[in-house]
Amino acid sequence: MSYTKALKRLQTIRAHVAPNLVEETKEGDNSTHSDSMLRNVSNKKASIWSGFHQKPIKDRINLLKRLYPTLDGDIFLKGSLTPAQADMMVENCVGKIELPLGLGLNFLINGKEYVVPMALEEPSVIAAASSVAKFVSERGGGFKVHTTAPVMASQIVFIGVNYSSAKYLVDMNSQKIVDFCNSHCRVMVSYGGGCRGVRTKKIYELQTEDESRDVMVVELLIDVQESMGMNLCNTLAERCSEFIRNIIGEGKIGLRIATNLCVERMATSFFKIPVDKLAWKDLNGKEVAQGIIRAYEFAVHDIKRTATHNKGIMNGVDAVALALGQDWRGIEAAAHTYATLDGGYRPLTKYRIAKDTSGREFLLGELELPIACASKGGVLGTNPAYNATHLVAGQPTGRQIAGILVSVGLAQNFAAMRALAVEGIQKGHMTLHAKNIAVSAGVPPNLIDEVVAFMSSKGTFDVGTVEDYMKAHKIYSVTKKGNISESSKKTFSTCFVKIDHPDLAETIILNLIIETPEDQKPIHLSITQDPEDKKAFGKIFGDHSYDWILKILLLSNQLTEVTELPGYQKTHQASLCYRLKLITILINRVVTAILRNYKEEGIEIIESVYSVCKGSNVEYKIPSSHFFLHNLLTELIATYRYYIDENIDNKFLREALIEDIMISLFGLKESYKYLYGITGLTKENYSIFIGHSSKRINLTQVLLIDILACDQSRITSEYIKHIVALGQVIELKAVSIRDVHKAELNDNSNYNCYYNWLKIHGKDAQRMNEKNKVEFLKSVDELNAGKISVDTSKIMNQIKFNLLLLNV
Ligand code: MEV
C-alpha cells in the first residue's frame, strides 16, 4: 500500500474512531437554569442534552420548549424580523439574510451552567466549543471569569490648545464636567450609571507660523450599565464639548465620538487543568500540554499564525455576539486593537504550565478582552429573536454576556490548538464540511455517514465525489425514487487496546475500526487488563494473550538495556515506539489466531494478505465468519505502515520495518504448514522450520523500532542490517529456550520446536532428558553461529527469557 493510500485508509479509520465532536453529556452533568423545569430535570439527574446533536431539529426545538416554557421556539425556525422591521433598520432594504443558529453546550462559568446560542455559517465551531467546554468543566472545574465595570470612554478632540494649561484646567474642573455630563444622562444615572471621570491626552503638536500648538483629547468615562453604550457616549461627547471648551478657553472642537477600545470594560476568562488530566485521543496529558504550548509559541513568534490564532478565537466570540444581538464589529475592533497594545500584534490568549505547591503541573489558559456587551437597548428591543436567545442563555447581564463571550473564545482557541497540536485540524473540519456537501447533494439522511466516510477516505470533498459514491453503490437511481433501504448502511466493528503497567513509561492506547460485512453483526473487542476483557480476548486469540503482549513489551524494555543501541534515549519518541511495538505484537497475535483457528483456510488467508501487501492484485474471498480477524489484520498493517511512513525519515529503517513484518507473516504461515502436515518435516529442512517458527517471538521488530530512540546520525544501512541479523539470532535463541521450558512445564501443544526436533531425531518420548535439551539448544546455537560478528553472550545471558516469557 502506498503512503497516500495508507494515510487515507487511516483517515477513514480515524474518522470513525474519533468520538463525535459533541460528546454526550453524562448522567449528572445537567444544566441548572433558574427555570423550575430545568431544576426538576436536574434533580432527577437526567442528562438533558444527551444526544442533542443527533436529534432532528424539530425534536431539539421541542426540548427547548419544554425547558423554557415561555420560549417561542418557532421563532428560530420561522424567523422573527418582519420586512417592515428590517426596512426600519437599514436603508435600501430588500429583505433579510439568514445564518444557522446552534447551541454551545456544557459551559460551566463561575460555577453556573450556560446554554450558549451561537450563530455562524462555519461548520465545526459549535461542536468544538461544546466538546472543549465539557472537557474543561469535567477536568478543570469550568471557566473562571472576571469582568470590570461597564465603563466606556467617549473622546472629544480639541485642536490648537496649549496642552499643559488645558490639562490643568480640565483636571481642576473635572467634578464640574462630571456633574454637567450627568445632568445630561439622568436616566442612566437613575440606573446606577453615569459619568465616572475625565482624563486628557496630548495627541500631537500642530506647527503653526508663530508658535506650536497641541491637539488633545478629553475622554469622558461613562458607566453605561446594561447598555452597549456607544450611542449615549456619542451624545454626551457632543453635549459636553462646548462646556469643556469654555473651561479650556481656547482651541477648536474636533471629533466627538466614543472609542470601541473600551479598556475599562474588560472581561477575562481562564481555566486550569491538571496536566495529568489533559490526555486526549491517544496522547497523554504531558504531550497534549506541550503541544498546546508549542502551538501558542508559534502564534507568539509569527504574525501570520497570530492572525489565524486570533481568528479562531473570534469564531466563537462573534458567533455568540451575533446570536445575542451584540455589536460584533465593535467587539472585533476592540479585540484586534487590544492585541497590539504591547507593541506588535500578539495572540489574544495566553497559555502556560505551572506547578502548585505539591509539585502537580497544570495547564493554564486565559483570554482577556476589552468587550462591550449589553443586555438592554439597541437592536435587542427591535428583533424578538434576541428575547428568545437571551432566554435560552439564562437572561445574562451585560457583564455575564462578556464572560460567556470570552469563555467561548477561549474554548474555541483551545479546541483549535489541541486539534492542531494533536491530530491536525483538517480532519474534523472536513468531516463536518463533508456532511454539508452530502446534504446539499441530496444524499438521504441514512446514507450521510457512509458518504462522509467515503469522501474522507478519498480525501476529496465535493459533489462529484458524492455522486461517484452514489453511483458506485447502484443506489443513485433508487435515491431518485426516494427509496433507500436502511440495510445499505455500513456497520463497523471496533478494537480498543489499552496496555498499562508500572514498568511501561506510559499507558499505550490504540483504537481501530474494522469494516463489517453487511450480513454480520459488528464485534467490539477490548484488549485491556480487565479480567472480563482478558477472557474474551483469550477466547479468540489463545489463553494469556493479554499477558503475552505485556510480557513482550516488558522484554523489549530489558532488551534495550543490553543491546547498546547508539545514543539510545528511553524517552525519545517513547509514545511512537510503544505504539509501533504494540501493533507489531498484535499483528503477530492476529496472524497466529487466524492460522490456529482456521487451519488450512487460515494459511490461505495469510498467503493472500501477504501477496496483497507485497503489491499483488489478487482478489480473494474471506468466509464471512472469518471477516473480523482478517479485517483486523489488514487494519493493523495499514495503521503500522501509516505510522512508519508518517514518522520515519530513514528509508532503510522504513524498509526494514515493513520487510520484517512481511517475513513474520510468511514465517508464521510456513511454520503452520509443517504443523498441519502440508510440508513434511525432515532433518534437512529443520533449520528452515525453526527459522520460520522463531517469528513467533518477533524481537527483530522491537529492536528495529528502538532505533527510533537512537542518535539518528549514527544509523547507517549497515547498522540496520546488523540489527536485523541480531534480532534473528535472538529470536531463534528465545524460541528454543521457550520451547524447552514448555516441555518442563509439561505443555502438550505440538507447536514446539524442541518436540519437533526430538521427533526427527527419533527421540519423541525423551522430552525430559537433560542431554536432549542441551543437545537441542546447542544445535540452535550452531545455527546462529557466525550470523553476527559481535559477541552476543552478554545479551543472551542477561535477558531472562524464561522469567519473562515462559509462564504465559
Ligand atoms: C478556522 O476558522 C479557525 C482556525 O484556523 C483557528 C486556528 O488555526 O487556531 C482553526
UniProtKB/TrEMBL annotation:
<keyword id="KW-0560">Oxidoreductase</keyword>
<dbReference type="InterPro" id="IPR004553">
    <property type="entry name" value="HMG_CoA_Rdtase_bac-typ"/>
</dbReference>
<dbReference type="InterPro" id="IPR023074">
    <property type="entry name" value="HMG_CoA_Rdtase_cat_sf"/>
</dbReference>
<keyword id="KW-0256">Endoplasmic reticulum</keyword>
<protein>
    <recommendedName>
        <fullName>3-hydroxy-3-methylglutaryl coenzyme A reductase</fullName>
    </recommendedName>
</protein>
<dbReference type="InterPro" id="IPR009023">
    <property type="entry name" value="HMG_CoA_Rdtase_NAD(P)-bd_sf"/>
</dbReference>
<dbReference type="GO" id="GO:0005789">
    <property type="term" value="C:endoplasmic reticulum membrane"/>
</dbReference>
<dbReference type="InterPro" id="IPR009029">
    <property type="entry name" value="HMG_CoA_Rdtase_sub-bd_dom_sf"/>
</dbReference>
<dbReference type="GO" id="GO:0004420">
    <property type="term" value="F:hydroxymethylglutaryl-CoA reductase (NADPH) activity"/>
</dbReference>
<comment type="similarity">
    <text>Belongs to the HMG-CoA reductase family.</text>
</comment>
<dbReference type="InterPro" id="IPR002202">
    <property type="entry name" value="HMG_CoA_Rdtase"/>
</dbReference>
<dbReference type="Pfam" id="PF00368">
    <property type="entry name" value="HMG-CoA_red"/>
</dbReference>
<dbReference type="GO" id="GO:0015936">
    <property type="term" value="P:coenzyme A metabolic process"/>
</dbReference>
